């Protein structure tokens, strides 16, 4: 049972135009194709106790892509290109992530999810990557993903999963700046931008800045978190 965080945003379907809890189907398909059962976790008011109750029924957590994290969370004022914050989703995901890490539960972060993990552990973000590298190559706009190669760090968990290099699909205008406590960089792109981070140790905690759900023929990251979820569940049962 793999929990995936979702959006709470405006959606149109049929005669309806309402706020809805939603997530692109590619995430769900990635988890189910890898053998997992997807459970959607829409943003809502949260306490540590609620986060614990939610995760008690799950075996892994996927923190998905979406709107920019509120810069207040890492001690900065908003850049003019930074999205209007979604405080409910921020609080929801920080609470779930904190509890998942406390439990040693497998975690996979995707795009925003990588940024949430980094900020949760005290790191910071570049709020607008073009200001740093001088180009908009990581986010073409209009929902068009940019294929680009990334190079993994030897000895990292990510390198074990995908090898020395990997072609990925990117759509982000922010990126990791200062790396959070205990995290290590596990991939960069040709611009030197951090494209993946992980938590060393036995617990599966890995986050990528790209969108693996946009590469349906490459299930390695989804398979890895599902396999980690199986091991986590087996460990809970044996206690």
UniProtKB/TrEMBL annotation:
PANTHER family: GLUTAMINE AMIDOTRANSFERASE PB2B2.05-RELATED (PTHR43235:SF1). Gene3D superfamilies: 3.40.50.880. This is Anthranilate synthase. SUPFAM superfamilies: Class I glutamine amidotransferase-like. It comes from the Bacteria. Signal peptide: none annotated. PROSITE patterns: GATASE_TYPE_1. GO terms for molecular function: gamma-glutamyl-gamma-aminobutyrate hydrolase activity. InterPro entries: Class_I_gatase-like (IPR029062), Peptidase_C26 (IPR011697), PuuD-like (IPR044668). One of its GO terms (biological process) is polyamine catabolic process. One of its GO terms (cellular component) is cytosol.
